[in-house]
Amino acid sequence: MEHNDTFQTIAFESEEILFKEKGSKFFGYAFPIEHEDEVKPIIEILKKQHPHAVHFCYAYQLGIAPNISYRANDDGEPGNTAGAPIYGQIQSFGLTNVLVVVVRIFGGVKLGVGGLITAYKTTAQMTLEVCEIIEKTIDVPFLISFDYKNMNKVMRVIKEKKLDIVSQEMEMDENSGLPIGRITIKTRKKNAETVFGIFDLMFEIDIKII
């Protein structure tokens, strides 16, 4: 079975983008995020930057299929005139783990439904166009536990399979008084089953997904 274990996101927070339409100003921002809990603090920061703005519209997407979560927020604009066009651009660019916020300062002239959709879509597009788009892998973390005498065996596999070491530590076993090694590694999702199998078959070595 083929695992989809890569996704596209943005490398860094974008620069501020400004789009003007009939006196209204639309400020666009994009942020790489890992969790929905990051959204509210970002919006609060933008509210301090733009104390005269009324609408802080946004959309975000997290995860990859089939485990995608997303939200599109119109923040007081007519239904589906702001959040949906912003989210449409996230999809158009093929991105995930990203938040796009468009802050509107009203210029006195109403834009109408079509005008709003175009303005929010255009601002989101301009914002994502200036971002550096990168590909990331979905990784699976494992904890490997072993007696110190087996350290070389473990390290040889880690080196051969080019596995990333997240952390490693040594401590004394309470029962035997001998040193125990614990190494946290991560590997791409598509390689996880193979890596688990290699360590699982090794004598006196314990591996588990964390």
Short description:
The chain is built from 5 helices and 11 strands.
Fold and architecture overview:
It is a single chain. The protein has 210 residues and is of the alpha+beta class. The chain is built from five helices and eleven strands; from the N terminus they run βββαββαβαββαββαβ. It has helices at residues 39-49, 83-92, 112-129, 151-160, 189-200, and strands at residues 6-10, 17-21, 24-32, 55-62, 69-73, 98-105, 133-137, 139-147, 164-172, 179-188, 205-209. Helix 2 (83-92) packs parallel to helix 3 (112-129). It is elongated, with a radius of gyration of 24 Å. The two termini are 23 Å apart.
Give the secondary structure arrangement, pairings included:
Layout: E1 6-10, E2 17-21, E3 24-32, H1 39-49, E4 55-62, E5 69-73, H2 83-92, E6 98-105, H3 112-129, E7 133-137, E8 139-147, H4 151-160, E9 164-172, E10 179-188, H5 189-200, E11 205-209
Antiparallel strand pairs: 1-7, 2-3, 3-6, 4-5, 4-6, 8-10, 8-11, 9-10
Helix pairs in contact: 2-3
